[in-house]
Amino acid sequence: MDMNSVVSEIRRPKPQNDSSASVKRSSSSKPPKKKAPAKRATVYFEVEILDAKTREKLCFLDKVEPNATIADIKNMFNKSHPEWYPARQSLRLDPKGRSLKEEDILQNLPVGTTATLYFRDLGAQISWVTVFLTEYAGPLVIYLLFYFRVPFIYGPKYDFITSRHSVVHLACICHSFHYIKRLLETLFVHRFSHGTMPLRNIFKNCMYYWGFAAWMAYYINHPLYTPPVFGEEQVKLAVAIFLFCQLGNFSIHIALRNLRPAGSKTRKIPFPTRNPFTWLFLLVSCPNYTYEVGSWIGFAIMTQCLPVALFSLVGFIQMTIWAKGKHRSYLKEFKDYPPLRSPIVPFILIIRLSTAVENRSMPRLSPYCANKTPMKVYGSPKNTDHARTSSVTCEKYAAVLERKAGNSVRCTVKSH
Length: 416
Hints:
Keywords: Endoplasmic reticulum, Fatty acid biosynthesis, Fatty acid metabolism, Lipid biosynthesis, Lipid metabolism, Membrane, NADP, Oxidoreductase, Transmembrane, Transmembrane helix
Pathway: Lipid metabolism; fatty acid biosynthesis
Pfam families: Steroid_dh (PF02544), TECR_N (PF21696)
Distance between the termini: 98 Å
Enzyme class: oxidoreductase
Order of helices and strands: HHEEHEEEHHEHHHHHEEEEH
EC number: 1.3.1.93
Mean pLDDT: 82
């Protein structure tokens, strides 16, 4: 081998190994990057708030989150109108409709992306606890003033002289026990779904409780008061009725308290517990009112006093109105609510809601609405002059009405 052949052999390039080249290519090539999913654009709402009486535009809220609650909207409205704090506001979809709940979510309401709400001023507010403490403390103090016969009530010769009748002392114990129990329940038992009530109500409530307490106490503790006709037997029977109903009323309040967790507004169907006093839930929706009326009937039998009987009658009428309202709300909210319950008295005033009555209180659908297309939503039949148009899909609005009324809503597609 000569020198030239050696040099040419050295300069000749070596053939590359195919396997090593493929490894290099595979190592150098990176996997394709996955495209990040496109972020879904948030659809903001525009909320226009009008005065329910004058239709004057009070506020316009721009870029409101779809998951904002009515409580959030009230706080936003309060920033532009500090004189109307949230507890004083009532927002509704119709000028004469019902107030929306604070936990209602904007995107779940039958409104479009441009929502119109109507505002009503509820007036100055005061907490329920303050109202209850005031209206219950008054009768307790007023009754004791008559019981101890303070001066300027019955005359100088009867000042601070106790009655000789044992039923008078027993009536004072029962009356004081009732209102002390109410005060303690207000502080430690009751959980209120609404934090406040109109300030004007405290004057009306105090006139009712304080006035009747003074009227009853004046006659029961009067020096010329006469005991019941049937004597000790009548008094013992009345005390048994009073104590039985007081224990029943307290048991129902405890059962209702356990249905609602602290700090929430959750509503559940009340059912009897192991406590026998709660078995009245099998027959009535508001057994606390039933026991309350029973307590005052027992007190009226014990004292045989006409003002007590009138107080029991007026209280029964008022509590029947409250019980019927709560009974209707239970029937509307819960489809499986026990049908045999009556509001306050077993087997009396049983209320059943018909579909026709329900439909009169609901907004009407437009005659034609295609799926996922804008449709017209009108006010209630009585307020056709306030008809308004919202960009709401038929599917969404039907779901809202179905949750509210428990009825199916049919959407008809118009053929062209």
